[in-house]
């Protein structure tokens, strides 16, 4: 057993003292200028830093329908072990990152509020959280480092009055010298390289001390900066450094001091005036978020007066703390709003002003099934729920959620489910990638309404709780919860929508039936020896047929006509029409011929269609010997039970079932077949 000392020394070995030293470095202004000469990026503004942070996680480029696409790995949440990863929103995120890029380059977007807009639960808060967390981490790396300043106290050289707004040290340089100093700092740098640009003025507090010292030293700036200390700025939401969040409370209680700081009444007595910056707390959300990012949660719920402040702040990069002049800020301003809220205010007059000064970025729901599934797999995987989740459980919930978001295709020949499959990358005869793109384009509002992932997450949780003594949960448990919840769903207020969502649950159940029927069929037919024998038999006959020969009967040794019934019974399984059978058979023989020239043998598994046809044929032949439907009656003889156990074992091996879920699904499929038999 390890002892305490060993545990401590493990941490001792892994800790990075060098890194700690760097992060907690404190130096002089002169030393800071040397840092800036070597690493000018430390002076990046907030938009530049956030944009570089996103790029620093890496970029993947790919194509969809011959159009280039980008995936920013930053949104995979690589440093949070993926727990906050965003799935399936590459397009929206690309638009967002492009806006940041343009703001970073100073093309004007930096003067607008970035407004994430979308339906409830489309991951807007998650995106904001990722940016804030990311910035905390990035500011602590060498690449993302930034610095701020303070003045050594005259009374006690151990004490530094740090800038309450985390100001950039270069702001100490008087305006009239800035051009020349920028030129010196940028000397030797090419036009494509990052160039230092000194922007903004010191905050009122730091400016006050600066002026005081200037006086003290008879206007000698070189002596003033000797009193300056510079330190690394480690952004942290918890410590209220460089990261702010503003959440509207009820309308009456909104007070501008929450944004721009407040008078410190206790200190007024000490300093004698309420306009002395030392008697003011620069701790409003805008103040503390300087150099980083400020998030406005549900921004349209803000009082209108506040909104104008906000728009002003973003346009001017300035705020107005009570009693003080305009104060410069450098921070990314990010707001989000839910689509119903946005719609409610659409015709409001101040929305005009808002539209002009915001960049609205739509964050829709996911419309690609495989991506939606990932959202649920992250939270509900066997490790986290300590339970077996039957195959297709999360898939069916996700399928329903996506179906509720899709717009009915204009093409009458296409069902909603088929459209979902096309979006999911499945190919359907007669549909090219180009057509799929057109489908997306014709459905303008797709993904902006429907069921939210949060609703589905809640219902999966309910199912887990309701069946907490079961060792496994299955799709029906979840689908039933999804249906039951519709009655009380707060966001659905018309009966027609509710009805439509119920019908879509029906579509999903039908699809589930097809999927499991297919799996059970394949499990029954997954007898490789039998398949190989059937295949050899089929090929012998096809060969004889195409070459107008006879087939040797293995028992009798007699030569017989090719077995047309056998061949057709296989081909019909995959809808090869009588008129197409010659072509099909010839294709197969050509393929086998080509293989044998290379000295290779034919393997039916390489031909997906033939494989499927053989499986279905074998299933048909074996179905009756397995007597699946006898499962319904509960009286199963030993021989049948043995066969059923083999099938169950294959379901477990090939399709991810466990004992219990395999039993369930066999019973379920047996009941479907029993129904089918009864119909016949
Ligand atoms: N595209 C997505 N990828 C990953 N998770 C998502 C996605 N969309 C929604 N979620 C999940 O749904 C839940 C709601 O997201 P949230 O960010 O709170 O939404 P919003 O702020 O838009 O209402 C969260 O658990 C989130 O992780
Ligand atoms: Mg939210």
Structure, explained:
Helices cover 52% and strands 10% of the residues. By secondary structure, the protein is of the alpha/beta class. Among the domains are: 41-107 and 125-139, no CATH class; 369-522, no CATH class; 525-621, no CATH class. It is elongated. The N and C termini lie far apart (69 Å). The model has no long low-confidence stretch (mean pLDDT 91).
Give the structure's gist in a few sentences:
It is built from 30 helices and 19 strands. Magnesium ion binds next to helix 6.
The helicity comes to: 40-55%
Distance between the termini: 69 Å
How much strand? 5-15%
- Tell me, briefly, the overall form: elongated
For the largest beta sheet, what order do the strands appear in spatially? 8-11-14-4-15
Number of strands: 19
Overall average pLDDT? 91
Strand count, sense and barrel status of the largest sheet are: 5 strands, parallel
Low-confidence segments, ≥5 residues, pLDDT <50? none
Number of helices: 30
What compounds sit in this structure? adenosine-5'-diphosphate, magnesium ion
Structural class: alpha/beta
Radius of gyration: 34 Å
Feature tags:
single chain; 680 residues; alpha/beta; five-stranded parallel β-sheet; 30 helices; binds adenosine-5'-diphosphate
């Amino acid at each position: 057993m390890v002892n305490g000392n060993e545990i401590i020394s493990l941490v001792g070995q892994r800790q990075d003292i060098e890194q700690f030293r760097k992060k907690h470095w404190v130096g002089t202004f002169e030393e800071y200028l040397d840092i800036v000469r070597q690493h000018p990026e430390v002076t990046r503004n907030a938009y530049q830093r956030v944009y570089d942070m996103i790029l620093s996680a890496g970029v993947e480029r790919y194509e969809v329908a011959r159009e280039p696409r980008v995936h920013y790995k930053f949104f995979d949440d690589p440093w949070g072990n993926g727990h906050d990863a965003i799935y399936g929103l590459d397009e929206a995120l690309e638009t967002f990152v492009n806006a940041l890029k343009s703001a970073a380059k100073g093309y004007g977007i930096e003067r607008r509020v970035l407004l994430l807009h979308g339906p409830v639960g489309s991951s807007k808060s998650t995106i904001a959280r990722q940016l804030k967390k990311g910035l905390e981490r990035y500011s602590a790396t060498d690449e993302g480092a930034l610095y701020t300043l303070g003045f050594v106290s005259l009374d006690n050289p151990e004490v530094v009055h740090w800038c309450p707004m985390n100001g950039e040290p270069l702001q100490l340089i008087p305006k009239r010298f800035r051009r020349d100093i920028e030129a010196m700092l940028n000397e030797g740098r090419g036009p494509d390289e990052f160039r230092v640009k000194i922007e903004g003025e010191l905050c009122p507090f730091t400016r006050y001390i600066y002026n005081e010292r200037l006086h003290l030293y008879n206007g000698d700036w070189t002596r003033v900066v000797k009193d300056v200390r510079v330190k690394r700025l480690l952004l942290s939401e918890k410590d209220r450094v460089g990261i702010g969040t503003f959440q509207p409370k009820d309308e009456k209680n909104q007070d501008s001091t929450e944004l721009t700081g407040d008078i410190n009444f206790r200190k007024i007595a000490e300093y004698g005036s309420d306009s002395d910056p030392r008697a003011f707390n620069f701790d409003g959300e805008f103040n503390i978020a300087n150099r980083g990012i400020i998030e406005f949660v549900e921004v349209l719920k803000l009082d209108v007066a506040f909104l104008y402040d906000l728009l002003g702040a973003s346009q001017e990069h300035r705020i107005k703390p009570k009693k003080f002049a305009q104060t410069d800020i450098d921070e990314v301003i990010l707001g989000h709003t839910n689509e119903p809220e946005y719609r409610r205010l659409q015709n409001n007059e101040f929305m005009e002003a808002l539209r002009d000064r915001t960049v609205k970025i739509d964050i829709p729901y996911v419309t690609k099934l495989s991506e939606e599934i990932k959202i649920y797999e992250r939270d509900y995987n066997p490790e986290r729920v300590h339970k077996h989740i039957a195959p297709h459980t999360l898939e069916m919930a996700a399928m329903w959620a996506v179906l509720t978001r899709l717009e009915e295709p204009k093409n009458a020949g296409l069902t909603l489910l088929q459209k979902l499959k096309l979006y999911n990358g499945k190919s359907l005869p007669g549909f090219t990638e180009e057509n799929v793109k057109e489908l997306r384009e014709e459905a303008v509002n797709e993904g902006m309404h429907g069921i939210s992932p949060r609703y589905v997450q809640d219902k999966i949780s309910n199912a887990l709780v309701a069946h907490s003594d079961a060792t496994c949960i299955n799709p029906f448990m979840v689908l039933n919860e999804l249906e039951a919840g519709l009655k009380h769903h707060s966001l659905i207020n018309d009966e027609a929508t509710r009805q439509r969502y119920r019908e879509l649950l029906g579509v999903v159940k039908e699809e589930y039936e097809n999927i499991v029927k297919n799996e059970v069929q394949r499990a029954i037919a997954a007898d490789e020896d039998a398949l190989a024998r059937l295949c050899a038999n089929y090929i012998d006959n096809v060969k004889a047929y195409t070459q107008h020969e006879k087939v040797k009967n293995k028992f009798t040794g007699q030569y017989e006509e090719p077995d047309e019934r056998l061949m057709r019974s296989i081909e019909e399984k995959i809808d090869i029409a009588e008129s197409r059978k010659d072509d099909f058979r010839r294709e197969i023989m050509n393929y086998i011929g080509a293989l044998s020239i290379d000295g290779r043998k034919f393997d039916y598994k390489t031909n997906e269609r033939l494989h499927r046809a053989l499986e279905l044929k074998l299933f048909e032949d074996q179905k009756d010997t397995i007597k699946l439907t006898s499962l319904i009656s509960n009286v199963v003889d030993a021989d049948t039970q043995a066969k059923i156990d083999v099938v169950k074992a294959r379901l477990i091996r090939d399709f991810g079932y466990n004992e219990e879920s395999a039993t369930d699904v066999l019973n379920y499929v047996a009941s479907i077949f029993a129904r089918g038999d009864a119909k016949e």
